[in-house]
Amino acid sequence: MKSVRALLQFTTILPLGEPADFGRFAQRSWLYPLAGYVTGGVAALPGLAAWYFGYTNSLVIAALTLALVIFITGANHFDGLLDLGDGLMAHGSRGKRIAAMTDQTTGAGALALGMMIVLITFAGFASLPPLWIAAAVLCGEVFGKMVMGLFSALGKPFHEGIQSYIYEHSKRRFAAYTVFLALPLFFLPEKIVVTAGLAAAFLVFGVLWHLARRCFGGVNGDVTGAGNEITRAAVAVMFALLLT
Asked: What does the record say about its membrane topology (predicted)?
């Protein structure tokens, strides 16, 4: 339980008492999807409430869902997405890209990538009925955290930081464990849509891992956090494409 509490303190703003030993989670980083069930479950509440009361305005529910999921995570992973945007869109050598990604300023690249992912996610959610918005955000969060677990097990870091600390305590077999924790999503109806969401998550991991190695020489916490945000957007799009 201490590992789970450390995980939730790292990935959410939930009031969970005294800070737990982060090292306990680092030794069990395959637990990442458990946080997705929590954050996705909380973010699903607007869609579930709208379905229960017969409210059908998907635009409002999509906006509330997206706002809630970013809020409950403390915008921690969204910050990683912004930093990644600066790094990817910087010009010059690998060193300049890393400097752009790791500095404290927010540049045009950050704003551009952040806006693109938010708009894509919102469009995907808004294309769905409220009940399916709830299902999409749950799947997006679980699969997004699964991608973070994959990076923790397989994403060799390029410098010291949170990612390197977790990576040092991880084993390659954790990649299989973290995927296994995401499989209960297949109890949801429309299994073809869940399968498409899982495939999209693997695609995001593969593309982002390749980009990170090419542009930065490895992975850091920003890349890992961005994987969560981009996966959520990809899952929202897959739901929209297959259910509308």
From this structure: Multi-pass membrane protein
